[in-house]
Structures are given as structure tokens and as C-alpha cells.
Amino acid sequence: MGSSLYQNYQKHLESIVKAYDTAGSKYSTGIEDPDAYGIVARAESAIRKICDEDSPYTKHMNSILKNRLLITTMADQIVGVVRSLKGDLEDG
Fold first, then answer.
1. Are 43 and 78 in contact (CB under 8 A)?
2. SS3 readout for the chain
């Protein structure tokens, strides 16, 4: 993978993390359902684009999605996966 592709992936993942952080700060109760659905969709799309099916990131995401948790809980957990993936990309 070229370094510009890594940078694009990092920016994409960072935008998801920022959207999550912004959505969480809008309400005193944390992230709300409409924001959470969008964040989960964006995160799922990004992880599937960046990682193959055997990747730990994809496996963790699939596990989170299968658990049928509250959407806000899924968003919390999937953003954790996104943060880790972003960190690994930054580390090379």
C-alpha cells in the first residue's frame, strides 16, 4: 500500500472518530441514535474497505454487529476498533 493511500485511510478514520466525538458532546447523555447509526455505517464501510475478512479488525467489528447491542453501544465499541486501526496505520 502506498503512503498516500495510508494517509487517506488515516484521514478517513480520523473523520469517523471526530464525528463520534462531536456527536457525543452535543448531548449531556452522550451519543444519540441518529448519530450512532451513521457512525456505525461509516465505520463498517471504512473497515471493510481497508481490511480483509480475516483481519482482527473485521472480525471484531463483525462480532460487535452480531451481538445486537444498542446502537449507541455498538458505536462506542466500533469506534474503539476504528481508533486501533488508525493507530496501527500511523505506526506503519
1. yes
2. CCHHHHHHHHHHHHHHHHHHHHHHHHCCCCCCHHHHHHHHHHHHHHHHHHCCCCCHHHHHHHHHHHCCCCHHHHHHHHHHHHHHHHHHHHHC
pLDDT tens for the chain, 92 residues: list them: 567 888 899 999 999 999 999 998 877 677 888 999 999 999 999 999 999 999 999 999 999 999 988 999 999 999 999 999 999 998 87
Distances in whole angstroms, Cα of residue 53 to Cα of each of 25, 36, 88: 33, 23, 17
Nearest-angstrom CA–CA distance, 70 and 1: 35
Global pTM value = 0.89
> How big is the chain by its Cα radius of gyration, in Å?
13
